[in-house]
Amino acid sequence: MRLRKKWWARPELEESNIFISKPADLKGKWREEFGNNNPIHLELGCGRGGFLTENCKRYPDINHIAVDLKDEVLVYALRKVKEVQPELTNARIVALNISFIADLFDKDEIDKIYINFCNPWPKDRHNKRRLTHIRFLNEYKKFLKPGAQIWFKTDDTDLFNDSQEYFKECGFNIDFLTYDLHNSDFKNNIMTEYETKFTSLGMKTMCLIATLK
Q1: Which residue of 38, 103, 127, 166 lies most exposed, with the fewest beta carbons within 10 A?
Q2: In a domain? residue 3
Q3: Is 106 annotated as a binding residue?
């Protein structure tokens, strides 16, 4: 569904110190931006910010960067952060086409990536747009630390099966895998808004954790 342009969204974002309007300028300098040497976790496709906000609250000693494409979505993520915890200091929000994600980070700068319910791009000619495709994984490897993890959740079986092969081909070990996360023994899940809504309607969430060798 196409979002209607909200002309007020960018000015509201730019008024906040957690929105980074020129993120490429911070390549190699993200720890300076946060003012500490804590690990940095990256969420690709943050939506309205529920996952980001809960992550920041639960793990205050980790820095969190959330990326999405549209100001019209990110402004609600910003509001969620401010509503739940106005003084939150370990969150930053970035508007970006994820195809350019490697322009933002230097070698070994990121400790973990979250990819939650990304577009499955089911047609063969569109598979390269998947955020777990080899094309993207090779971009992430430019800035992930050795031993860094990618946590991936989806409700699309074809995407989940194909992604397992993408990770293996790209030099990742799959350390955790389930086709039914909420009925597994996994204890550290944070549910997204999408996940909460559709789980209540009977959707099963698939999840894997891949570690860079």
Answers
A1: 103
A2: no
A3: no
97 is in an annotated binding site: yes
pTM of the model: 0.95
Cβ–Cβ < 8 Å for 59, 204:
no
pLDDT tens column, 27-80 = 999 999 999 999 999 999 999 999 999 999 999 999 999 999 999 999 999 999
Separation of first and last alpha carbons in the chain: 38
Residue indicated by tokens 């300098």: 29
CATH number for the domain spanning 45: value is 3.40.50.150
CA distance 71 to 95: 7
In a domain, 106, yes or no: yes
Is there a binding annotation on residue 183? Answer: no
Phi and psi angles of residue 27, each rounded to the nearest 5 degrees, phi first: -55, 125
Whole domain around residue 164: which residue ranges? 8-212
188 is in an annotated binding site: no
